[in-house]
Amino acid sequence: MNQSVSAPSLLHPHIPFWVAVLIACVSSFMVVMDGAIVNVALPSMQTDLHMSRSQVQWVVDAYLLCLGGFMLLAARASDLYGRKLILQSGLTIFTLASLVGGLASDPTMLLVARAIQGVGASALATSTLSVIVAVCPSNSAKMSAISAWAASSSIASAMGVVIGGALTSLLNWRWVMFVNVPIGLLLMFGVGFCLQSPSKRKTGAKLDLGGAISVTLGMGMFIFAIMQSVDLGWSSTTVRIAFCASAVLISSFVWIQATAAQPLIPLSIFKLHSVRMGNVVVLCLGASLTASSFFLSIVLQQLAAYNALDTGLALLPMGLSLALAAIVSRPLMDRGWRRLPFLGGIVSALGLIWISVLPVNPVYLTDVLGPTLLIGLGLGLMLMSAAHTALAGVPSKEAGVASGLFNTSRQLGAALGIAALSTLAHEVIANVPGNTSAVVQLQAYHAAFLGAAVLSVIAAFTSLALSPLPHKPSTH
User: Fold this and answer.
1) Are 169 and 66 in a shared domain?
2) Residues 255 and 281 grouped into a single domain
């Protein structure tokens, strides 16, 4: 009976549930695509807006930080104020920020727009799945809809690099931002037409706004300190102040979580071994996944003389192999593949080691296609299986918080990974005399790829500390 009454409470009468599922899938597609579509346009953004290398990194990190930092807050707001309101708010914020980003006349305007985009994306990332769960009239329909939602997210990452390359080459980089505007407007209309607000709102619950702001600013200051160390040195006053500010903010976040009546993350959840180990795996996975695409896009365009469209097409097989591996990972686990996170981590590390010897004039089939297929395959195998394995050891009452925490860790890990590995690359350049040559710069990116490989190996071996999922014998 619960399922039969849940759909009408969110859907307007006579609206088929699949319309809401389609809106959720397209919204999720747009958010995931935005994380990939910008990577290919970064060199063009840098040239047009005269951006420094740290500002280029913040184009990605500002988005990821706000996406991860506000994700749990958005999920709580969706429960408290209703899924329609939060989904509409997320679409409005994301769409307007995309328009502002496309119109940016200087780096500051673009970076602020990207941060606000991340806030909107956090609402979309958390509310789309909850809409699917609420509107589906049966368990079988729900499982099919969730599969479609997961597939749309996986395919978006692959298609983002091609769409970004095409828009940047055929038009200009601003269209990787403008493309979200018509899609966002259509989705806003669809949400308003199909979904209705709850007749009653929950009372007594509170939003932990202080927790969300303190953790986002704390991580942001930490990343800022790492980036500034490249130009100013680790002993500079600016870097030290930034690290101290980060420590204060993150300590404030922990204190807020320990004392708040309704914290974003109950600290007791970290008593669970699977949560501690699982978050290490997901942090490293997020870092390897995002950093590999980030650096590959820059290397292929700036050093190997690929244009944006060629870069997107070159990275498409990596995205497709990642999507395919993510989709098949759950059936493989059901058939007895109990250590997929470990296997995926090792496979992706091999691909990253292979790409770390990329020559200045690469041959696509051997120097680019081979290693990127391995990277995509390995990270795809980890993407779904690591979360499934980690959540298997979490009590059902804590599963929602743990799942949200893993998603947050993945985004924050991605932001930290780009900052740390970019710093590693620039340290290599700084320590080589005459460091402007293409060979020296390529050596620096080689170091970044090796760093990503190390993170992938750490994720692989940490996953061995998780209890493997029990084998489910086939019923056929």
Assistant:
1) yes
2) no
Q: What is the pLDDT of residue 124?
A: 86
76: confidence class by pLDDT, cuts 50, 70, 90: confident
What is the C-alpha to C-alpha distance for residues 278 and 66, in angstroms, rounded to an integer?
Answer: 22
- The pLDDT mean for the chain works out to 83
Number of domains observed in the structure of the chain: 3
How far apart, in whole angstroms, are the C-alpha atoms of residue 287 and residue 368? 20
- Distance CA(34)–CA(32), nearest Å, equals 5
* Closest to 292 (Cα-Cα) out of 343, 347, 216, 332: 347
What is the share, in percent, of the chain residues with pLDDT greater than 90? 24
Share of the chain above pLDDT 70, in %: 92
For the cut 60, the answer to whether the pLDDT of residue 472 exceeds it is: no
Tell me if the pTM is above 0.70: yes
Could you tell me if 277 and 133 lie in one domain?
no
54: domain CATH number is: 1.20.1250.20
Q: Is the same domain home to 192 and 278?
A: no
Asked if 285 and 252 sit in the same domain, the reply is no
Distance (Å, whole) CA 395 – CA 72: 19
Average pLDDT over residues 285-300: 88
Please report, to the nearest 10 degrees, the dihedral formed by the alpha carbons of residues 237, 224, 303, 42 taken in order: -140
Give yes or no: residues 116 and 245 share one domain. Answer: no
Q: Domain check: are 240 and 275 in the same one?
A: no
Give the residue numbers spanning the domain of 396.
266-476
Among the three residues 155, 174, 201, which one is the final residue of a domain in this structure?
A: 201
Confidence of residue 91 (pLDDT cuts 50, 70, 90): very high
443 and 352 in one domain?
Answer: yes
